[in-house]
TrEMBL record:
GO terms for cellular component: cytoplasm. SUPFAM superfamilies: FAD/NAD(P)-binding domain. Residues 41-317 form the FAD dependent oxidoreductase domain. InterPro entries: FAD-dep_OxRdtase (IPR006076), FAD/NAD-bd_sf (IPR036188). Pfam families: DAO. PANTHER family: RIESKE 2FE-2S IRON-SULFUR PROTEIN YHFW-RELATED, SARCOSINE DEHYDROGENASE-RELATED. This is Glycine/D-amino acid oxidase.
Amino acid sequence: MSAIQRYARTEPWDDGVATARKSHAATTALTTILQTYGRTLRLSEAGQSVALVERDRIASGVTGRTTAKITSLHGLRYDYLADRFGLDVARLYAEANEAAIDDIESTVDEYDVDCGFERMPAYTYVDSADEVDDVRAEAQTASHLDLPASVVDASSIPFEGESAVRFDDRAVFHLRAYLFELADRFASGSESYLFERTTVTDVDEGTPCTVSTDRGSIQADDVVVATHFPVVDKGVYFARMKPKRSYILAVRVAKNPPDGMYYRRGDPTFSVRPVPEVDRLVLVGGQGHRTGDGGSTTERYRRLERQARSEFDVEDVKRYDRQLREMIVEGRAEPGFIVSHVEPLEKAPEMYERFDEREEGVTKVLLKP
Ligand SMILES: Cc1cc2nc3c(=O)[nH]c(=O)nc-3n(C[C@H](O)[C@H](O)[C@H](O)COP(=O)(O)OP(=O)(O)OC[C@H]3O[C@@H](n4cnc5c(N)ncnc54)[C@H](O)[C@@H]3O)c2cc1C
């Protein structure tokens, strides 16, 4: 699989109008986007004509940058939902999230998607004795909703924590691998269209509905708009939205990566998940803030790294600039010109010496093992 894929399905635009029985303009919430892709694929396989429209590239939004935990344990949520909206609403939330996990797993199985899907427990832990009662209440309400919840004490938490709620059998996976596989299959269907770099500008309800884009229009019986930020915003929801930002680092730990995914409630939050298919690799996340209020990005990453080092024996931190990487992959940036020499590894001592002596023209040496 190539790192970045293009789906240039331009045929139906010849007369400026494409027709589709279902039309999706991206999606919402990680589990929903994944379900949407799975369902979209199934619809097209069932003979429906489906168009999926994406302003940028598949998985270029926040979905391509998450920790990719698939869990129905989200902080301490159930007791709050039950208290505020009643048990029926809390149950709906639980059932929707449980269904999403199962749906993704069955899609992985059905299409044999190689994406490191693995079941493991999820924990929300607290590090203050004052919050232990909240943990107990959460586990109790969750159990009442038939969720696989239990309380874990400090001795079983691999971090500085007082207590945790544990949900069994949650999952992690490689989200981009999953999406690209589904997108590949979807785009190869004769009646399905995946339009990247195409922006939806309007949706007119009608029979059929018309989806206007900057490249033409699509007519469809049904339209699902799921762009995270509303783009067809009749309820003026944008005014109530609060963009937030948070950060993830991949770190290699010296030993014993955690055997489950963890989330610490509080300020700052701390999120941890192992990457089972890569030796001792762990994703750590946190340092969230309102967009624009967070100060220096570098400082945020530094703080996250310090947090990771305080919890793990970190061997190294994997860092790269995704934007730069994608520019290189797409050929828009060519940093190769700064390499003055490409030499075999045996020549390392000589080349180090020449570089050290600042020999004319020896500016950047690449050693090939
Ligand atoms: C650091 C971090 C870690 C996270 N970890 C997890 C986790 O472990 N588990 C979890 O469940 N959630 C996690 N989340 C939350 C999760 O990533 C998001 O809720 C989810 O990815 C949102 O998906 P989305 O499809 O709504 O948005 P996006 O992925 O942003 O997709 C929206 C898409 O709509 C497209 N679009 C926008 N406007 C238009 C238009 N006019 N026309 C066409 N296309 C358009 C965009 O280009 C974009 O691709 C995390 C979030 C962050 C920031």
